[in-house]
Predict the 3D structure of the following.
Amino acid sequence: MLLTALVLADTHLRDGDRKWLPPSVLEHLAAADVVLHAGDVVEPGALQRIRDATPAPVHAVLGNNDTRLDLPDHLELELAGVAVGLIHDSGPAAGRERRMRRRFPGCQVVVFGHSHIPIDAEGVDGQRLFNPGSPTVRRRQPVGTFGVLRLADGRLADHLILPVEPPPAPAGRGVGG
């Protein structure tokens, strides 16, 4: 059986914000079998909005900006027979592969966030290191991003980092305006 996980991190959503997830993320959210959020949701109402937008279970970990959320600092889950680790900050890029292998020795996939930089890389002994970037706060990235993992029968069948669609261009005043 194929399981589709929507992977988010660093959404930085606040309760009552008009800012929300882009439509392409919402489409994947509605179709996901499980949602993994690697921290920095920011406020409890925003996490509840994500939960309300999907019939899927939502697993989230504490990010450095999640001061009002009661979440674990890391999780280990089994999804479709695949061991998945979830943490917000994987530390500096130098040594990340070995550090994540030590932190999550039994996990085939480690999902993390914090940097807002999308990463889909092989770590030590074939462990997949996966940072979806951020769909809402792209920082120095050209576009916002999110991730999709497809898992089946104890293996990672697919791993994708997808761009959010660009926002519509502001209406101009035309030539000579």
